[in-house]
Design goal:
- The protein is an alpha/beta fold.
- The protein folds into five domains: about 100 residues, PAS domain (Beta-Lactamase), CATH 3.30.450.20; about 100 residues, Beta-Lactamase (2-Layer Sandwich), CATH 3.30.450.20; about 200 residues, P-loop containing nucleotide triphosphate hydrolases (Rossmann fold, 3-Layer(aba) Sandwich), CATH 3.40.50.300; about 90 residues, Helicase, Ruva Protein, domain 3; about 45 residues, Arc Repressor Mutant, subunit A (Orthogonal Bundle), CATH 1.10.10.
- Helices cover about 40% and strands about 20% of the residues.
- The strands form six sheets. The protein has a five-stranded antiparallel sheet with strand order 2-1-5-4-3, with helices on one face.
- Strand 4 and strand 5 form a beta hairpin.
- It starts with a helix and ends in a 6-residue tail after the last helix.
- Keywords: ATP-binding, Coiled coil, Nucleotide-binding, Transcription, Transcription regulation.
Length: about 575
């Protein structure tokens, strides 16, 4: 009686229903059952469907073939204290034209065989579709993320930061975005993707993204852009034939450390896609050198590179400098283009963006979202076509904590973050840089210095270089000035007295470190590195899981992985 009651309800949701008792024998049959099965009361599960009940997964779809036809089986259980039933809901998928369930099953199979990754979220923001290609691209499992809210699966922190929710509300697609989801050996694997709304009767019912692993395409683009760059090179110093406002390419970035080589490769990938990027690094690490190199490695090489140091311009003038003015906007104002207009279809480099006032950050955020600017004193709109490269000499996470940077601006400009380690963390690059600077100043000062003494080399390798590469160049320049014409090696004796005392004091500090007395900043950084590493190890180096366990974002974890050069063993 119970089986019949349940079957009569379920028959509306399937072509046919077969119910088995706790001995796995037919106890009720209803609906349209194809002659390929013809179940009869008392018949065993295996005799009806040709497989054991335990081999059919619970609450999942199973495809079986019989008599040249294709059938979809769905197994469910019904349990009470005195009864236990196994329910099979059966649909004939052979006719895909008239059967909606058949069409859906076919489409799911098609989606799963695509080379492009597909992820779809429903009206609530829950992941409803996640194909195998997406699993490979993002290093996540479909069985674990399906049914989760996007902001939980990707650890965005809140729904507003989910691009799917933004597209759901705006009903406008986002085309050609570029982000890193998966990491292989600690190196971010960037993918190009687009996100589209599914609209029915004027309302958004779902959102989906199509992701492409374009590694081969990137390689071809690298080769093409490199050939184009070489054709535009005028001399051995890489001065561009046309004046685009730059002096440097990736060839000018010198160093032998593995960290630097991986960083260059990452920056070249960014350049190929012409996407906005945030460069983070201490003062003197070469952030503008990387910014110019990215510009010259991209298709924007023929367009202007316009740089502005946000810390060097008074707050009262920075807005007019960026957006421009019209005559009469304020006393003394004239018709003047802003840097956004000067950059045209090129690159605008916002150095030390961490020094930008909060009030101006909100205006910048609006420009980046709308891709439009208004000069001060007018409502006339000018489209913005330039790529934005920003740089910060402070940790953006700390900036947001102390309300020095808007979080929405950070997430907008930091879709891709390049973290340049300080020189003290990549000592393998010091020798290469010394040789570059000696060669440069040999030409400037007409000298013949061949290198540095072993003693000076020891001092350099143990110095902390708080001013990074810029400080190293300054020291080499001072040494070259003090060297005699017949000198061939630079030595400690060539150091000016004030620099000599600096190195001696730093050497004493290094000795204290060896005795366990580390400066607070170093100790905190070391603890932070260990904290992040421990979280990644506990999460099996799954960035999403580690971020969720720490209560932070994937971007924060990725930033610190780059900062401390943390890689999966």
């Amino acid at each position: 009686m119970m089986a019949a009651a349940i079957g009569s309800i379920l028959i509306d949701f399937a072509g046919g229903v077969v119910i088995f008792d706790e001995d796995k024998r037919v106890t009720w049959v209803g609906g349209k059952i194809d002659d390929s099965f013809s179940p009869k009361n008392g018949q065993s599960f295996a005799n009806v469907f040709g497989l054991e009940e335990r081999d059919m997964p619970h609450n999942k779809k199973t495809i079986v073939t019989a008599s040249g036809k294709i059938f979809l089986l769905r197994k469910k259980s019904f349990t009470l204290p005195d009864i236990r039933l196994t329910i099979i809901m059966l649909d004939d998928l052979t006719d895909v034209v008239s059967n909606k369930e058949a069409r859906l099953a076919c489409l799911e199979k098609i989606v799963d065989t695509l080379n492009d990754g597909i992820v779809m979220s429903d009206h609530e923001g829950k992941i409803a579709l996640y194909n195998k290609a997406e699993e490979k691209l993002e290093n996540l499992e479909a069985s674990k993320v399906k049914g989760q809210y996007l902001w939980d699966a990707y650890n965005y922190g809140k729904p507003a930061l989910s691009e799917h929710r933004q597209v759901f509300q705006s009903q406008k697609p986002v085309i050609g975005d570029y982000q890193a989801h998966a990491h292989i050996n600690g190196i971010p694997q960037y993918v190009r993707y687009s996100t589209y709304p599914i609209i029915r009767h004027g309302k958004t019912i779902a959102v989906f993204s199509v992701s492409t692993n374009d590694t081969k395409l990137k390689k071809l683009l690298h080769e093409t852009l490199e050939l184009k760059r070489k054709m535009l090179t005028l001399d051995e110093e890489n001065k561009m034939e046309h004046s685009n406002g730059t002096n440097y390419t990736f060839d000018n970035i010198k160093g032998n450390s593995k960290v630097l080589k991986n960083l260059i490769k990452e920056a070249q990938n960014v350049a190929v896609h012409n996407t906005d990027v945030l460069i983070v690094g201490e003062t003197g690490t070469g952030k503008e050198l990387f910014a110019q190199s990215i510009h010259n490695h991209s298709e924007k090489i023929k367009h202007p590179f316009v740089a502005v140091n946000c810390a060097a311009i008074p707050e009262s003038l920075l807005e007019s400098t960026l957006f421009g003015t019209v005559k009469g906007a304020y006393t003394g104002a004239v018709n003047q283009k802003g840097l956004f207009e000067y950059a045209q279809a090129g690159t605008l480099f916002l150095d030390e963006i961490n020094s930008m006032p909060m009030s101006l950050q909100s205006k910048l955020m609006r420009v980046l979202e709308e891709k439009k600017i208004r000069r001060l004193g007018t409502n006339e709109i000018t489209p913005v076509h330039c790529t934005i490269i920003s740089a910060s000499n402070e940790d953006p996470q700390e900036l947001m904590t102390f309300n020095k940077m808007r979080s929405d601006l950070y997430y907008r400009i930091a879709r891709i973050t390049i973290a340049i380690p300080p020189l003290r963390e990549r000592k393998d690059d010091i020798t290469s840089l010394i040789n570059v600077f000696i060669h440069r100043y040999n030409l400037s000062f007409n000298k013949d210095i061949q290198g540095i003494s072993d003693q000076l080399n020891h001092v350099f390798l143990h110095y902390s270089w708080p001013g990074n590469i810029r400080e190293l160049e300054h020291v080499i320049e001072n040494l070259m000035i003090n060297a005699e014409e017949n000198d061939h090696l630079l030595d400690i004796s060539h150091l000016p007295s004030y620099l000599r005392s600096t190195f001696i004091n730093d050497d004493k500090q290094n000795l204290k470190k060896k005795r366990g007395r580390r400066p607070l900043k170093t100790a905190v950084a070391s603890a932070e590195e260990e904290y992040i590493r421990d979280a990644l190890e506990k999460a099996g180096w799954n960035i999403t899981k580690a971020a969720k366990n720490l209560g932070t974002t994937r971007q924060n974890i990725q930033y610190h992985m780059k900062k401390f050069d943390l890689k999966k063993p």
